[in-house]
Amino acid sequence: MIRIGGIICIIMISFHWVSLAQYIPPPEALSLKNDSIAFKEVILRPYGEFGMFIPRNETIQKTYDTKSMFFWGAGFQLNHPLTSSFFPYASYIQTRYTIFTKIDSVIKLPQSFVMQQIGFGFVLKMLKMNRTAVAGKIGYTHAFIRDDIHTIKNQAYGFSFGIGLERRILEKSKFYTDFSYNYQKIEPAYYRDFDLTRFSFGFCF
């Protein structure tokens, strides 16, 4: 999987350089470049997102009786939205899914699956169409996981890669949606596979 991640990274960087060679900045960017006061090459852009992820481990799906879990997240990107096509990012994502199990057919005991994940990487605009763009995303992830049912409390290390569609609104903000795959494992326990696929919707300022 690490070798596959490296190949994907190389492909995305190649797309990045190709897009740079073909990219013509929009009129707003050209006017900004002529304005030494208004133009800033690197800016900090906060964002928020939400969506669902699907655990690839069937044990998690069966014991928590669900195919998907809701998540929310926040983070920031760097670089100018009009003149750049390469955006480093840092992110924080959290999910908490709780079910109630019966003891002696009377008492209901809450059992939760909790994941807090931090990550960093970069987003590449690979295909630009006026205010709309197709973007690829790849990065490292580090998750803190608690599984009450199997008494697992551990950290998972991995990487994610995906592709999405974004639409610029107003002057610099954007709505986006993306699909990604997250490869991540923990040290040997009841099970160690915490891979997941994720569907995200977000807004970047």
Account of the 3D structure:
The protein has helices spanning 2-22, 27-33, 58-63, and strands at residues 44-55, 69-78, 86-103, 107-129, 132-147, 152-169, 173-185, 196-204. Residues 6-24 and 34-38 have low confidence and may be disordered. It starts with a helix and ends with a strand. It has 3 helices and 8 strands, in the order ααβαβββββββ. The chain has an 8-stranded antiparallel beta barrel. 17% of the residues lie in helices and 58% in strands. By secondary structure, it is of the alpha+beta class.
How do you describe this structure in short?
The chain has about 200 residues and is of the alpha+beta class. It has helices at about 1-20, 25-35, 60-65, and strands spanning about 45-55, 70-80, 85-105, 105-130, 130-145, 150-170, 175-185, 195-205. It contains three helices and eight strands, in the order H-H-E-H-E-E-E-E-E-E-E.
Features:
205 residues, alpha+beta, 8-stranded antiparallel β-barrel, 3 helices, 17% helix, 58% strand
What percent of the residues sit in helical stretches (DSSP H or I)?
10-25%
Radius of gyration: 20 Å
Largest sheet: 8 strands, antiparallel, barrel
Q: Runs with pLDDT <50, length 5+? A: 6-24, 34-38
Strand content: over 45%
**Count of helical stretches:** 3
How widely separated are the two ends?
Answer: 34 Å
Strand order across the biggest sheet? 1-2-3-4-5-6-7-8
**Structure summary, number of beta strands:** 8
Q: Please state the overall shape, judged from the principal axes of the Cα atoms.
A: elongated
Topology order in helix (H) and strand (E) letters:
HHEHEEEEEEE
Structural class: alpha+beta
- Output mean pLDDT: 84
